[in-house]
Amino acid sequence: MNIAAHTFLFSVYPYICLAVFLMGSLARFDRDQYTWKSDSSQLLRAGQLRWGSNLFHIGILFLLFGHTVGLLTPHFIYEPFISAQHKQLLAIISGGTAGLICFAGLTLLLHRRIFDPRIRLTSHQTDLAILAILWVQLCLGLLTLPFSFADRADAHTMLRLADWAQRIVTFRPDASGLIAVEWPFKVHIVLGMTVFLLFPFSRLVHVWSGFASVAYLFRPYQLVRSRRLNVPAGHQQPRRKD
User: What general EC class does the enzyme of this chain belong to (predicted)?
Assistant: First the structure.
């Protein structure tokens, strides 16, 4: 990969993806709210969906949370509690377990979309495309595990990738120089950013609604008043004429 392409992919492309991700999601919510849904096919066949959906969501939520916290938490914050080497080993074990769970669920969902005739006929092309992209992304993520395990002695790769992510979110232009890692990491990063790029144009937008529903936990109770009339003592409530 030449220097110009490397600089574009790891210093410019992330901002393009994040801008489309945020502005595209807002535009779709404003203009096409009737398409803001998960397009569930549960009515067509629920058995395989139940296993696939549960495994996929458990795994993907853990991976999303783990990647966010692991990459964006500065080293000096967790250094007093856990070393970088132990943190990387923990990430390999927990991330690998969650990745396998997610992979099993996503494989079930993709198989169901492709090989069930009724579901395939009612599926949008974007549904199949986004599932296929996520499946490849999971394969790449699992492929990085042996490289991370081999690097566990000094956690060099993990520290580089975390520093790159933190420079991206803090708008420092020298981020691409840190991506001197093996090719599975590079492809995994680029495809992961591409998922954010495609996010507003797919069924993934329902993820926003899932996070927004957490706000219901902090809403005050709804007061429901009785429809009975408050009749003073000694007075008879008037009867309604039929």
Answer: oxidoreductase
Q: What does the block give as tokens for 111?
A: 């198989």
Q: What one-letter code names the amino acid at 137?
A: Q
d(CA 205, CA 60): 15
Nearest C-alpha neighbor of 66 from the set 136, 132, 165: 165
Q: Is 188 labelled a binding residue? A: yes
Q: Which has the closest alpha carbon to 142: 195, 188, 183, 179?
A: 188
The architecture in CATH of the region 44-208 reads Up-down Bundle (1.20)
pLDDT of res. 59: 94
Q: What residue ranges do the domains of the chain occupy?
A: 44-208
pTM above 0.70?
A: yes
Smallest Cα–Cα separation from 88: which of 77, 96, 76, 80? 96
235: left (phi over 0), alpha (psi -120 to 50) or beta: beta
Q: How far is CA 235 from CA 21, 229, 230, 242, in A?
A: 65, 12, 10, 21
**Residue 57 marked ligand-binding:** yes
- Give per-residue pLDDT as tens, 93-126: 999 999 999 999 999 888 888 877 777 777 678 8
Report whether 59 contacts 103 (CB < 8 A): yes
Let me know how many helices (H) and strands (E) the chain has, helices first.
10, 0
Alpha-carbon distance of 60 to 40, in angstroms, equals: 18
